[in-house]
Amino acid sequence: MSAPQGTTPEGTASSDTAIGREVGLALPRFEPGWVWLCGAGPGDPGLLTLHAVNGLQQADVLVYDALVGPEVLGMARPGAELEYAGKRGGKPSLKQQDISLRIVELARRGKRVLRLKGGDPFVFGRGGEEALSLVEAGVPFRVLPGISAGIGGLAYAGIPCTHRDTNSVVTFLTGHDATGATPDGIDWASVARGSPVVVMYMALKHLDEIRGRLLAGGRRPDEPMAIVSHASLPDQRVVETTLGACVEDAAAGGAVAPAMIVLGEVVRLRQALDWLGAVQARAAERADA
Fold it and tell me: Is 65 part of the annotated catalytic residue set?
């Protein structure tokens, strides 16, 4: 059953944005005093969801992270305020509590606040912490999921997270905890034994220590690994290596943060599934013709 005219499928008022008219969908209206926690995907602006574009076309203020690119910010409605709230390891940045307090303050001033995060806000994006702060403050909010880099970013590298011939389990983990250190709360031995594919966020800085823990847990040093820097962006770089040689190959291959790291037999599938490399090769051939 379709939604009544002027309402979204969940019964809230619909917006009159360009994206809604273009696709013929009743997308939600961004009400004053609300915060939308929005995932911007791994980087390619084409991976934004319709809900994200709808939010960009209505928001009064964009509070955005370091991984949100200028092309995405350029989609904001004219007159929207842009506030940077990026957090990058090893660089000066706002404390999480300050960011949460700021979005509460803006909402209480009647602003429509789009909290824009790379990837998905609820996947190693501190979105849960900010949502709890909004609940505590009595600020209404909506969550707009995004494509997480651990899935979409690897897809742009031609690496599926799962394949029936290699794995029916995949583990997603972060390479540093709230203090910036390698997480001690992870049972590394269990991960090493029990997960055929391990996808690691924010792990490049501590890759040497992580390698040691996985090897100690029984992973083979010749197991394939890939390090995907700037996933889905024009300067994407993929370093194919092994667990045993990953630290040295990462340095030699120019791997830089932000990067996704994947360990497991699925990495071998990139030899056949590097669709982006094939597209770029064909474009180069046409340019030379």
Answer: yes
